[in-house]
Predict the structure of Sigma-Y antisigma factor component.
Amino acid sequence: MTQTEIVIMVAAYLIVLAQGIFLFIDAKKRNRMAWVWGIVGLIQAPMPLICYYFFVIRPDRKKRGIKQ
């Protein structure tokens, strides 16, 4: 492996880790299966964030009456 490939792998790992942590913390605040969202967030990026937005954040905003 070249040094460039290692840097790319480390960056990808950090992005996926940050995404998983964010999904876990936010899902815990919203009482929405935090462990499931955290684990799904560790699988790939950015699809879990997109799904989380459409299945959790958007319905939660509509329920609270917050416009975007």
